[in-house]
Design a protein that fits this description.
- The structure holds two protein chains of two kinds.
- Chain A is mainly alpha-helical.
- Chain A has two domains: about 1-120 and about 180-210, no CATH class; about 120-175, no CATH class.
- Chain A contains eight helices and two strands, in the order ααααββαααα.
- Chain A has a two-stranded antiparallel sheet.
- In chain A, a hairpin with a 2-residue loop joins strand 1 (about 80-85) and strand 2.
- In chain A, helix 2 (about 15-30) runs parallel beside helix 8 (about 180-205).
- Chain B has one domain (about 1-175): Arp2/3 complex 21 kDa subunit ARPC3.
- In chain B, helix 1 (about 1-30) packs across helix 3 (about 55-75), helix 3 (about 55-75) packs antiparallel against helix 4 and helix 4 (about 80-105) runs antiparallel to helix 5 (about 110-135).
- Chain B is globular, with a radius of gyration of 16 Å.
- Classes of the chains: A mainly alpha, B mainly alpha.
Chain lengths: ~210, ~180
Amino acid sequence: MKHRKLGVFLQAHATPGALLAAGALLFPAFLLQQDLVLRALQIVIVTSLNALTGRRVRPAQFLVIAAGIVLFNLAIPTGKVLVAVLGLPLTEGALKTGLSKATVMIGLIALSQFSLRSDLRLPGWMGGLIGRSFYYFELIMSQSRRIDRKDIIGSIDRILIEVQAGGGPASGSSRAPVRSTLKGILALAAVVCVNWVPLVYSLVHPRPFWGV
Amino acid sequence: MRKSTTSLTRRLDLVALLGALCLFLSAIEYMIPKPVPFLRVGIANLPVLICLDLLPVPLVLLVVLLKILGQALLGGTLLSYVFLFSAVGSLASAFSMLFFRRLCGRHISLIGVGILGALFSNTMQLWLARVLIFGEGAWLIAPPFIALGTITAAALGAFAERFASRSRWLAAAREIT
């Protein structure tokens, strides 16, 4: 519960739009970062924020994704051979490219998760339709335990009939929109500043790819 | 005039429900571990397969759009590469499935349509993976990626055929449309 304190705070003090705007300001700080170590630090910061806001953080999944990307990049050797494993050359160029792409991929997922809240309402009738879809989704999820493995088609069919017959609000989510408060905006500004520090540092003290 | 407005409202309601079913199936799929986030079994495509014969082309594409946007908003991937992979794969699959179903009608089963959709979707995703992430190494993943996609698409197509023939909900939905 303690983990969700920031999430509860942001839910009460910042609109999904304000969170999205803060996220948009984080993207350049991450994408312009060329220093691998500092980029990794930024990922740790954003992932920690995600954990504090109650998002489910899966480090093992991130590691599997990174390992997959690095391995596939290593398959095409480029640059200096660092070591040969079972006769296969492990090259510096391929390793750099793989690590760079892996950190960008993971970082973008983490940043995107931080920036988006499921109560974000997109404008227009499309936004209303998505809200309606989310409403039905919640109804289906609440009935999901009724899905019988022995009769999957029949049980899904029954749930769909009941959900559609139940109808619901004319449009959108039932959650009331909140207004951003000064506290919320200051908190988001602090998050943005913390993420820009590594980029500013790397611009003032440029280092080689590996950071040493 | 009023009747046609009511009809459109009911159709859009059906689109929202099909979009919700996509999201529910995505949530189930999310629990399946995978080495790269865009490598999916594809069970969330079941509602798209079902609605190929149920809805006109623009509304089928609307279901696909709801699926893409809903998955991205719930998973928080709207601002990442994952969204791009999802959008390109889903749209390639939807357009190809619509094309072949409209072209061949009942001469092609939902299994065939599903396999063709998966082939187009996987090819586009592999091309994106080559450009954005894996480089030339993407071709190494191509054989198992396409093979897995074909097998799961065939299974999903078979499931969709059974669902379409047995579902009472779908029978009622046909009357709405």
